[in-house]
Amino acid sequence: MLLRNFEKYLEQAIYKSRWLLVPLYIGLIAANVLLLIKFVKEFIKLIPLVLYGEGGQVIAGLLSLIDIVLVANLMLIIIFAGYENFVSKIDMKNHEDRPDWMGKIGFSDLKMKVVGSIVAISAIELLRAFMNLDVACSTEQLAWKVGIHITFVFSGIGFAVMDRLSAKD
Question: Is the pTM of this model over 0.85?
Fold first, then answer.
């Protein structure tokens, strides 16, 4: 009897421990606020480049903005999907602005979105390095960036293959 009571309380404690994730999601929301501040700073720096800079500088500045937006979108997906998968359902079913994917992304889907976003962010970083070859990095640094990007691409492919194989089971 004592063992059953202990097991019952242990299982309740484990189940309720999911709420320990909430401060982490709040931290990601705060990090998105910081990304907004970074975006505004980068946008303000872009204005003189558009007016007086060269095309490559403008494109590199725009890629920086896109990079920030991709990271912010990724964090938002992680916040929504992580909260709904591990903590509690978000009751916004009838809200007109509710994203279609909300409540439908499982852990596997979330993992693929993270990997896809990392590959996209890596590609943007690589493109930015190519746009500023003369000042951005040395040949060795560029080779490292290409190698890291290829590693991300193959990791993404590996995750996709594993998900496809596990879906067949």
Answer: no
Q: What's the alpha-carbon Rg for the chain, to the nearest Å?
A: 21
Calculate the CA 106 to chain-centre distance. 15
Percent helix, strand, coil in the chain, to 5, is 80, 0, 20
pLDDT digits (tens, 9 = 90+) for 11-47: 999 999 999 999 999 999 999 999 999 999 999 999 9
50 located within any domain? yes
Give dist(CA 110, CA 81) in Å, integer.
Answer: 7
Q: How many residues does the chain have?
A: 169
Domain that holds residue 110: 22-168
CB 115 within 8 A of CB 163: no
Distance CA 99, CA 114 (A): 18
Spatial CA neighbour of 71 closest among 38, 105, 26: 38
| Number of independent structural domains in the chain | 1
Look at residue 2 and tell me if it is in a domain: no
Lowest average pLDDT, out of 3-12, 21-30, 141-150, goes to: 141-150
